[in-house]
Write the structure tokens for this entry.
Amino acid sequence: MDIKTATALRRLRLVSAPEAVSFLLLLLCSVLKRTTDFNAVPVMGSIHGILFILYVIFWADAWNRTKWPLRTAALYFVLSVLPTGGFFAERMLRREAENAVIAARARKEGIVNA
């Protein structure tokens, strides 16, 4: 994995969890708006919107660089629209990065998969 691909995956991973948190906070603000006089939806909606746009941009860049199959790319996109999906996406991306590091070290040491 080259450095640009690793960077694209890292950016996507780093925005996944904050995007999920902002989605959950937006849902909470929506409930509070309807049940109390507290209305933080415009502020939280803007924050979540920016994080979601960043997620989609980073997702597209990662898909382009990693050449994921359509199924994998679709899974990461679907996770972005589920309230807690960003947490799962972050975990999967972290695992993918760790596997890439292990594979690179194995190649460097000359270990071949049997």
Q: What stands out?
A: The chain has a mean pLDDT of 91. The first helix runs from residue 3 to 35. The two ends are 20 Å apart (CA to CA).
